[in-house]
Design goal:
Distance between the termini: 35 Å
Order of helices and strands: HEHEHHEEEHHEHEHHEH
Radius of gyration: 17 Å
Strand content: 15-25%
Largest sheet: 5 strands, parallel
Number of helices: 10
């Protein structure tokens, strides 16, 4: 990277939003990116895509070397379609496929592997483009964009996150057990927080926000006001 490129990257503001699954990161990040006209990075989708590709190829989820190769060679396209993000893997639309519980659980296991995280690190950083980036993930503020001028850690109770996921699946016509979802969320939280590389923790300078009793518009408004206070946008 040249000095000019490095300067340009640092000059582009990043809103880093981290937190456990079900805290509302994806929806909130997308709405804020749309409101500001910024780019959006759903880092979790990259791990989900790696996991989905591995499952389809029959690669064991503990084969770190082969999984890292998959991550490096992901043939992925993100494109906008009527206000929504469409994700393609090897030419096929997988937007819904990567959101299943099986892929989500597999992604959590894949994300714990250092070689996979290294393989995806620069790909994530390449999303940083003017006029700004909203980065959604679990280590955006602690690893990927440590110089982000505003870091947020969204959370909510495990029970509330399970309830939200249960409702989401029902609306999509999928059957799921609320108690099973709660157990899966608790297990995923423990795995994400205890992994040796880039564990799920708030950055030292992150603003922590519990969304358990907040509506989506309320969270969007609070984060937008924080951006305004930081001088990162005039949108309010």
């Amino acid at each position: 990277m040249t000095a000019q490129t490095a300067f340009s990257a640092v000059a582009v503001p990043v809103l880093a939003i981290d937190g456990p699954g079900g805290a509302g990161k994806g929806t909130i990040s997308r709405l804020i990116a749309q409101r500001l006209g910024w780019h959006l990075l759903d880092s979790g989708s990259l791990y989900r895509l790696t996991a989905l590709a591995a499952l389809r190829k029959g690669v064991p989820l503990d084969d770190e070397s082969r999984l890292a190769d998959i991550a490096l060679q992901l043939d992925v396209v993100f494109r906008a379609d009527h206000g929504q993000t469409v994700i393609e893997l090897e030419g096929a639309v997988v937007t819904n496929d990567i959101r299943t519980e099986q892929v989500g659980d597999s992604a959590s296991r894949v994300a714990a592997l250092p070689a996979v995280r290294t393989a995806l690190l620069q790909r994530q950083r390449d999303f940083r483009q003017a006029p700004g980036l909203v980065a959604d993930g679990r280590d955006m503020g602690t690893v990927v964009f440590t110089d982000a001028p505003l870091k947020i850690f969204l959370t909510a109770s495990a029970e509330e996150r399970a309830r939200r996921r249960h409702l989401q699946l029902r609306e999509a016509g999928m059957d799921a057990s609320l108690s099973s979802l709660l157990k899966e969320i608790q297990a995923r939280d423990a795995r994400d927080m205890q992994r040796s590389v880039a564990p799920l923790v708030p950055a030292d300078d992150a603003v922590e926000l519990d969304t358990t009793s907040l509506s989506i518009p309320e969270v969007v408004e609070q984060l937008t006001q924080l951006l305004v206070q930081k001088g990162l946008t005039e949108v309010c």
